[in-house]
Amino acid sequence: THRDDINNRIAGEVSEASAMVEEIAKLNIAIKGAETSSSKEVSDLLDQQDKILRELTQKMDISYYRGDQGMVVVRGPAETLLVDRGSFAKIDVSRAGDGNLYDIVVLDGAAYKPTVVTHENKRGRLAGMVEVRDRVVPNLLDSNNKMAGAFAGSINAIHREGFGLKNYQETTGRNFFEVSGNPDDIASTLKMDDLVIESANAISVAASPNAPGDNVLVNNMLRLREQKVMGDATLNDYYANYVGVFGLDLVRTQQTKDADDTLIRNLNARRDSVAGVSMDEEATNLLKWQANFTASSKVITTVDEMIETVLQMKR
After folding, report:
1. What's the rounded Cα separation, in Å, for the pair 203 and 197?
2. Residue 150 belongs to what domain range?
3. What's the distance, Cα to Cα, between the start and end of the chain in Å?
4. Same domain, 114 and 147
5. Most distant CA pair in the chain, distance
6. Residue 311 belongs to a domain
7. Which of 198, 178, 199 minimizes the C-alpha distance to 189?
8. Are residues 176 and 83 located together in one domain of the fold?
9. What is the pLDDT along the chain (315 residues), one digit of tens a residue?
């Protein structure tokens, strides 16, 4: 099912996030050890760590800052401590209460005490996947099942009143649709009655036995399209409404994504403009500007002296 597919993708994303957290902690140790090394080595390690941090923020809700000796401290959803110096928490999945879906847990500290953060995580791909798995898909399935149940129930109520043809003239009181299994999953279990599958003559659409051309019940079935069998809505209206709501959700999601993509591009451009500055190049330019300033100052001083000389001569 769609929820199972999303569930498996959540497990994969969590595994990748946990590996990133561990790598960030290892880089903390490397950064601390490289303090006495060249500035380029430290810079390379910091760049590598920043890249992983950016990738991790795309997966889940985190905050971080650099503390002692340039090492980063990372916190996750519900203020869980993911990285502190060389220590790191493990992020994993566990079966939720219903036994089918995964919860996201942070195993924090040496004892790996689990903290469930499934719905505390508000940002990143994992938050989006959980939202679709736990809200969007169930809402769609619920609407679909309600419509399927109302449709099958209405058809069956009419069909039970009718009679079949030929060898099935005495076949009455039977449902056209069979519903089995979980009532919350009607749409996937709905099937035609075995006798109807066996022969079209078993379709009970005649209002009385031995009545060739009797299509009273067929017309009753057709009129269901205009009847409010979904509370205060017809089947068509109900379907159009829930598809429309889903469509609006898609539009809003796409608009939010487009806005976020624009923001990310702008922030990346700003970051790259800063990260692209070469300190050696800037130092060279500073020396050039200093030399130009000295030369300009010398010109001004010389002009000032010349003016003073001219004034002395005039006196």
Report:
1. 9
2. 134-250
3. 103
4. no
5. 140
6. no
7. 178
8. no
9. 788 899 999 999 999 999 999 999 999 999 888 876 667 788 889 889 999 999 999 899 999 999 888 899 999 999 999 999 899 999 999 987 767 899 999 997 655 678 999 999 988 889 998 998 888 888 888 888 989 999 999 999 999 988 887 777 666 788 899 887 677 788 888 899 888 888 888 888 888 877 667 788 889 999 988 889 888 899 889 888 888 887 888 788 778 777 777 877 777 777 666 655 555 566 666 665 655 555 455 445 554 555 554 445 444
Looking at the fold, whether 114 and 150 belong to one and the same domain comes out as no
158 and 80 share one domain: no
Structural domains counted in the chain: 2
C-beta of residue 58 within 8 angstroms of C-beta of residue 20: no
> Residue 285, class by beta-carbon neighbours within 10 Å (0-12 exposed, 13-18 middle, 19+ buried)?
exposed
| Whether residue 151 sits in one domain with residue 74 | no
Angle at 280 between CA 279 and CA 281, to 5 degrees: 90
- 3-state SS, 45-108, equals HHHHHHHHHHHHHHHCCCEEEECHHHCEEEECHHHCEEEECCEECEEEEEECCCCCCEEEEEEE
Q: What values do phi and psi take at 71, rounded to 5?
A: -80, 145
**Which residue(s) pair with 107 in the sheet?**
90, 114
In-domain check, residue 203: yes
As given in the structure block, the two tokens for residue 154 are 């209405």
Beta bridge partner(s), residue 64: 74
Alpha carbon distance 82, 62 (integer Å): 9
Burial degree of 91 (CB within 10 A; 0-12, 13-18, 19+): buried
d(CA 275, CA 147): 56
* 47 residue type, one letter: D
